[in-house]
Amino acid sequence: MKKLLGIVVLGLLLCNTSIANNNSILPGGIYELHWSYKNKGQIEYFVFDTVKMENGKLEHLNIPCHRGLMGKYRKNLKYELSKDGKKFSVSGIVNVWKDNDNSEIKIKFDKDKIKNFDIKKKPLWSSSQYGNFKKEEIHLQISKKNKYPKNNFICDSEVVKFNSFSPKTAKEMLNGLKKLKKQKVYGDLYYPKSEKKKLPLIITIHPSMGFVPNHHFKFLNNLGIAVLDVQTFKSRGINSQWEYIVSEEAATIDAYTALDKISKDPRIDKNKIAVMGFSYGAMAVVNTHQKFFIDIIKPKNKFIAHIAYYPLCYLYKKIETTKAPLYIFIGEKDRLTPYEYCDDYSKKVIEGGGNSILKVFPKATHRFEWEKLKNPILISGESYTEEFISKTLDSSYPRYDIGKDVPDFTTPNGWSYFSLLNEEDRKKKYKECCKFKQSLLEYNKNAASESNKIIKEIFNIN
After folding, report:
1. Phi/psi of residue 249, each to 5°?
2. What is the pLDDT of residues 134-188, one digit of tens each?
3. Would you say 458 and 304 are in contact if contact means Cβ atoms under 8 Å apart?
């Protein structure tokens, strides 16, 4: 039941600004607030945020992203300094487990009760009972720092809700959306600090792991680009998948219904919205570029660019797309989603009058831009064999149009049809295409930098 906690709030501290700096429990300067949770004697460190105290006011400088660090898991957190500056308190409602147990906390610090007080040498520490749970506590430690944080990203989000659908395959969509199962979906909106009235935005679609690495939010927000991170899986009650429980077609509809929803936000420039996905999410992004899906979904708005990080590209008889550019970023060493298929797909898009830019990065693997993979890892899974890739790219191998229910890894939206097969038939298909082996996942600085550079060019950012 227990998960991670994010206990942060944006804004200014309400207090008397005439307090003498030397008398205050928190004199002017930079501080780190370290939050932790204690239950039955076990303490879990959660996260810290960096703040600045100046003239009795508190301003957040950095709130690092955290899997549990979402605005909806804390409410009305208030920081207060007493009139004489000697007492500091934090109060509000938090939610440790991300369920309905919203519990009040009040953490107090009193300078007169601290022996040998010296905030420069010794951190402050205090705690609060977690709501009505007598054996559970929230701890807060405050440490004085000499430097501003290198990272000034404020990782806080607001929830955006919209309506979508949950088809199992593209074939189910042939008669339109009205007969499909309706689905409530939400996304997390990361809106950067900005003096501009309207900002560009990127809608992100997560990979099969169920989350987008948070360094993307930081990078984009620092560029002045808002992010709507669509929660395709969590909205449907799952966290991750390999074979489809939630189809890429469902994620495709999510992307466009999210677009129409966020385009109504007065803070967003609806003429500067792109979509970006990773692996499974990238396959949905490729779909958003195709007229088949656009004509059925009938969105009221358009994407200025479609950005796909290492998708599995299918083989098509013919393909029609929107005129907006499709960018495919993929690694030369990636055998989970072979670049050769995307090369074939890009050529088909161009043949059909569309715009596709394929970037194959030398020596790069799957998830090449994940900063946490600077220490490489090996994962076990099905990798495409060179023999299967060569055979399926041969001109004699059959190709199909979108909407044909052929459960093959190379046919349009083939993973959706494959996932509906029984276990025995799926095993046979795996034997045809792949080998179960370990695959290297490694951060590639050149590939990550080049893809980031292209994103900046899309939005005309120097």
Report:
1. -65, -40
2. 888 889 999 999 888 877 787 778 889 999 999 999 999 999 999 898 999 999 9
3. yes
> By C-alpha distance, which of 224, 413, 190 is closest to 312?
413
DSSP 61: E
CA distance 218 to 412: 34
Number of H helices, E strands in the chain: 9, 18
Whose tokens are 């949905």? That residue is: 284
User: CB-based contacts of 150: which residues, under 8 Å, 6+ apart?
Assistant: none
Q: How far apart are the first and last CA of the chain?
A: 46
pLDDT, residue 57, reads 85
pTM: 0.83
What's the DSSP call for residue 315? P
Summarize pLDDT for 27-58 with one digit per residue, the tens.
999 999 988 888 888 877 667 889 999 888 88
pLDDT digits (tens, 9 = 90+) for 71-80: 345 566 788 9
> Taking each helix axis from N to C terminus, what angle separates 280-288 and 248-262, rounded to the nearest 10 degrees?
60
The domains located in the chain, with CATH, are 21-145 (2.40.128), 158-458 (3.40.50.1820)
Give the DSSP H/E element, type plus range, for residue 76.
strand 74-81
Mean pLDDT of 402-409: 91
CA dihedral (360, 366, 369, 372) in degrees, to 10, reads -160
Q: Could you give the C-alpha distances from 338 to 156, 324, 364, in angstroms and in order?
A: 36, 24, 12
pLDDT at 385 over 70: yes
Residue 150 to residues 58, 112, 431, Cα–Cα distance (Å)? 19, 34, 49
Whether the Cβ atoms of residue 167 and residue 247 lie closer than 8 Å to each other: yes
> Are the beta carbons of 287 and 456 closer than 8 angstroms?
no
Radius of gyration of the chain (CA): 25
